[in-house]
């Protein structure tokens, strides 16, 4: 803080005291100004008043750690040029945009010029301001641009404008399930303490992996691995508005390979307040490249089996449907399901890779089958 006086010791009001990379303080009717800055601030205080000059037009400071009192200036009438720009530093987003800066110069007839130092900055000049248009930042790192504003023989010239533009947001990592999930809309929950493995018994528990529970496409809970004395565990809360009966399937995000694993053995049935697995004896979920699962709807569906397996019989492939299947039709024939004998019987006894089949269901039911590739399924009209 300090005071600005004329040569006779009279206070001078309305004087601008500009602080580098900070604000401008204006003297009051007693010529007093004050300014609060951050601990360790380094920069200049520059004074400006129309048609006046100062015995000391600026003061420099280095790593301020305490109050700086009695920082006084003496003003006198003068036609000597002086210039300041406000603000002299701004932070902007990564998007394309513009910003304005005010130029204070005395005498008003004095000329000044500006020079951008970066190609991504375009400047426009008016009598007392600068408009800066900046392009969008396509990089994820921030960038700094500067503009030099100068007036020949002017006090406090040149003025440097600094524009710090943020980098573009990094692409989101992960599947984005957190945007789909809101536990507050559900009444009931169950818990699952588990580990996730692949077919070769390798644990899938990298720091940024995610295990999620689903009912259809509706996310019902998420968990990331947490370290315990027994190794990493997923502590998954599963939510529902039905106390029992909903089938819960699982999906796993493999952060190492940045992919979502859909084929996880096996689904479970939701039970209110159920607790499956412990830290010492965790439930095991297996991400399998040899396990295929798709839902067949009530009435007619198209399916094709794009795999070769040691047992391609109708009874083997459709065994997971239980008594929900009615009839399957292919080019080689058809078979009907006989609930009494729990078997498929008819002229169609085996299924071929790439062949198309129509299957009719009593109700929807997941079809699970050991396989290497997905089963394409398309519902037909009843």
From TrEMBL:
This is Uncharacterized protein. The lineage of its organism: Bacteria, Pseudomonadati, Thermodesulfobacteriota, Desulfobacteria, Desulfobacterales. It comes from Candidatus Magnetoglobus multicellularis str. Araruama. It comes from the Bacteria. Gene3D superfamilies: Immunoglobulins (2.60.40.10).
